[in-house]
Structure prediction request, 312 residues.
Amino acid sequence: MIWNSPAEFFAMGGYALYVWGSYAVAAACMAIEPVLAVRHHLRARRALAAGGER
Amino acid sequence: MTTSFRIFQFAAPARFYRLAGTLVPWFWAAFAAFAAIGLYIGLFRAPTDATQGDAYRIIFIHVPAAWMSMVLYVVMAFWAAIGWAFNARLASMVARAVAPTGAMFTFLALWTGALWGKPAWGTWWVWDARLTSELIMLFLYAGYLALVSAIDDPRRADRAGALIAVVGSVNVPIIYFSVKWWNTLHQGATVTLTNAPKMASSMLVAMLLLTLAFWAYAFAVVFTRAQAIILERDRHAQWTADAARDTGPAGNAPAIPT
Prediction:
């Protein structure tokens, strides 16, 4: 462990905005994209199960 | 049938659909494991950089995202070209499934690059060769996605998309070598296959673990999207109706036509 306190960890040596701004946006993108892909898959399955255009 | 030929059975959308459904949970498990260990080492174990302070920790997502953006472009162009040249429908569907994930990683590379550029160089953005060529790749992904969604006939859309994907692939080596060919603000490669890496080993390990995590993520999301595209494109085939009625978590098709 290189940090002495949680506050020091979150401060990131004064670069909190840049470091956490990067990690937060990456986390958001990589959380939203799988949800969209799974919903796409479920939508396709539901359309088929409903017997849509056959 | 020999083993070497058996691999081609996955060229049938029905078989690939089932294979993808089986593999996706494993890719998510790999992603979670690699990301957890990589982030732990990167954020709690790797030392503060002597010159850049803790701002350098952006590297653990910036470099893997930038690598994935280029790798996925090559993967997309490769399968689009295969789908075009050999009239292989599944290859074209995979190319379409790759594009949004590639675009997402390109955006992340640019976003984290801007947030790193500000503390390191004093500017969010410069029109230098590395940054500009990466931005062009984001436009190529967007152009591919817009083009394939704008054409109604799926196979015509696949061919048009393949053209833009293949022509645009000349941009990938330009991105990679831009820091050598031009005098850019962006630093040269920190890690290459031929030279010893110019960074502490804990930093390198964290970066490589997150690269593996991003690979696993890309497989999981691309395979899920490929499953959706296959069902939509094969909706007139009997096997898709059977697959849709199957409530198994992996969405396995119960009966595989031969």
Residues 13-45 of chain B form the longest helix (33 residues). The interface with chain A takes residues 43-48, 53-55, 57-58, 61-62, 65, 100-101, 104, 107-108, 111-112, 115-116, 118-119, 217, 220-221, 224-225, 227-229, 231-232, 235-236, 240-241, 243-245, 251 of chain B (CB under 8 Å). Chain B has one domain: 17-245.
